[in-house]
Amino acid sequence: MRIKTDYLAALAVTLGPVVYFLPAVINHKVLCPHDGLIQNVPLRVAAANILRAGNLPLWNPYYFSGIPLLASSQAGVLFPLNWYYLLFSPTVATNLMVISTYMLAALGAYLYSRRTGATIAGAVVTSIVWQCGGFLVGQLSHINIVQTAAMLPWVLWAVEGYARSGGRPRGAMLALIVALQAMVGHQQTFAYSLMLVTAYAVVMALANIAGSPRAHPKRATRLGTPGQPAWGAMQSWKRYLWSLAYAAAGVLLAAVQIVPTFELLRKSQRAEATYEFFTSFSMPRRFLSAYFAPYIMGGGDGRLFRAPYFGEPFYSVFIGYAGLLAMMLALVAVLIKRDTRTKFWTCTALVCALLAFGAHAPLNLYWFVYYVPVLNLFRVPARHLMEVDFAIAVLAGRGITVLAEGRGGKPVLRRVAIAASLVVILTCLMVTCLRPEKFLLARSAPVTLLRAPELFLPVLFAALSAWALWVFARRRRGSTARLLAILTVDLIIWGHSSGWYTSSPTADEEVWSVPQTVQFLRRTAPQDASAYRILTAPHAFDPATPPVPPSVSHSTDRVLWTQPDVYMMHGVHNAAGYDGLGLERYSRLAGQMKVWGELTDPETTLRGDSREIDLLNVRYLISLRQQSGKDQTDSVSAPQNDFPPATDRYNGFMFAKSDLGLPGIGIGKRLRFVVRPLAADRVALVSNLAWSDNVPDQAIVGRLRLIANDGRAFEFQLRAGVDTAEWSHDRPDIRARIKHKLPSLATSYPVNDAKGRYEGHSYVTSFTLPEKITLTGGEIELEAGIRWPDLRLSVLRLSLVDVDHGKSYPLRREWMRIDRTTALAETQPAGEPKTDRWKLLGQTSKVDIYENARYLPRAWLASESMVLDEGTTLEVVRTGKLPDGSVWDPLRTALVEAKPLASITSTQDARAEITKYEPNRINLKTYFSGRSTLVLSENYYPGWRAYVDGRATDTLRVDYNLRGVELGPGEHLIEFVYRPKSVVTGFFVSLLTLAVLLLRGLRSRQNEKFADEIKSE
Hints:
Shape: globular
Radius of gyration: 32 Å
Helix content: 25-40%
Number of strands: 27
Number of helices: 30
Distance between the termini: 39 Å
Structural class: alpha+beta
Strand content: 15-25%
């Protein structure tokens, strides 16, 4: 049996992702870099575990003290490619999910391209560019974005199929594909896809109307889809418009996912978005140059491309590299085949590139999008690169198709030469005279083409692509294979160096087994996982001194086991979490918690009188590891590895790319560092202060000592307002009372916290040695006898400088250690909160585990209640004081927002016990001799229904956002069941839509059968 070439090509591109990811899989990599590991995979594992336990995946109790699981949508529980987790281990399921997602994208792009008239080679080019291009590969860590984008060509394929021949079965297929795309669960890319499909259908309908024989008889023969007569194509404009009705039916078919998500969205921190949030991660305009030289701003993983990245965070968000040959072919299509589809995809690429600029768009054009409902809830404008890359992929396929039809002629060759020359010239300009000033190599070598693959390879591939395109245009034998090979190799070299390979964990890492922290909790904590919660803190924590201020607590040394979502894979309940749809009221209750689980004001929440995390049943705190007493006294060993590259310039001095991520230095603490012997004559420092608003200008706040290899010490004074200053100097309330000036700024960054919007700062200073000295280390500490007990000094970057040779040597974090200089009893300032709240239970190699002595149980009975408004309730929770100034005891007094149905008496014999805990159901047994309020340390959310002794009762919102019910005297059995109306409503809308589609399909088949019977008679 002879297999068609078309089928073989389709099979080849579909298997392409298997080959692409094979080296990583062979090396036991699990394809979940960055957010894939800390968010996407844990959610899918948790959802699978909930399903395997016999529960519907409606509620997730494992992070943010419980939020909806189906509604939050990130887990994509209804999308079939995520069901691997039900059958396989997390490592195998993840690789199968990722590879099959890219296979889906590859086949969809091929089929759409073929359906719109591309040759086999053209469809292969479209598929290669789409599956290996910048958007899909760059978003690998956000697999739900990739899955949504993978469905885009399938939706367009279904639109074209319906427009071509009509028929209700084809319309039903279109609706089903749209529904599947919606069920992936990434609303932003789904909305962008839906807008693109709508524009496509409308433009094609208008083109068919304008090109009809009635309107333009002479042009009628040039109208329509390839292989379709012009008179038949005249009727397809109606089908294009009708395809939008089927797409809308697909949205309704996905109502079971969309309606709950919309309900959660209104109650989440995304309910209202500022313009700053809306435009966060706008693509800088300079990233257009990355379409010609993808590593012109650095960003490689260090294996081949090692130039340090100096753009805005993060490279993978802004990269849309599609291959230089693809750019040439797209230009060929624009220059030669200027039909409706070419014009549409050209406009799509240009308009969506403009939208991707976001806040960087000229004339502030993105302000108009901010006022579009629904769209103004999404951030990361750079995700419009999805449409840009797909447009380039389609145009590239159309370019090779038009060349195959008319190659060899002089007009065609002339246009090919123009397209190829333009791309080659632009590439050369990008790596030479237009190269950014900050570009430098992480090598001891001058920047030259031969020494810098970041600059050399784009020129090489531009030349090879131009040659391959020219040979193909001249009809040379084997030219198609050469063209496809050059395109593929270019994209593979870029993609495999873009960071996903080195950032993907291996299958033998701790996260896939039972990690040390979980082992410790299972040995130490109660056996019932529902009896306690943990709180993960992404910074170091010392109960005796204030924690690092929140705006500077983002350590670059990100430790996996302080990331909140990973614990849900092991059934551990966390009060923190990482999800863009975190509940707004819960965020306020939990210390103004950010969507990635960080506390806005850890000083108040962890060390003050606040009862925020106590209410949330937080018994254990897991933070970045503090040094043990033994470690604090041991000497720091000399480093063996090299200095990191000096890439960032501040006030003329060069520093490392990233901050050190060290905790601040308080009273009684000292920062020590050791370096291999190094000749230097200057030291440069980036730092800032906290809690320093009352420090006078030019006051000595610290001392820097440098140690020479001959034992000599050189000491320098750090002065407020000269060398360093308050990090929040520009906060309005601080600015009004600050006593010292601003020194030279190093960095400024936006801050949006409970105190408003302002800029935080770090400051740069330098000190000159009397001569060139061979240094071996040094130390930094606060000034002895300092008058400001809360003062903290944060050392962010430190470089030793050899001025004569123009060399800067930034220090690494692992060369540094913070230890104590005096006993704790001597350094704890008078009036500081007592530290007996927190007890250090244990340490792993990366984290400290503390026990909270003030934690509250998961459920309790309060004998009294107090009616307070929302704002006052939150203030009581945060201060631990009732409005009359008395201490608030949550176990005794419940704070409610509505008057209780009956008076509550005070007794001492209250008992509340959880007898059954499931994600969607919690059973309790209580006893109280008087009336009481049952408080359950779980989030109050619509859909949770309460039953007391089998009778439905109202669920109360207690203590700002906890769940509760009123109880009468005696023993009771209470049941909380999660049955959200949004899910039920969405399910019935989906079911009704499915029924209508099926009935229409059956009726269509009956009509066809009846017509056949009449014809036969």
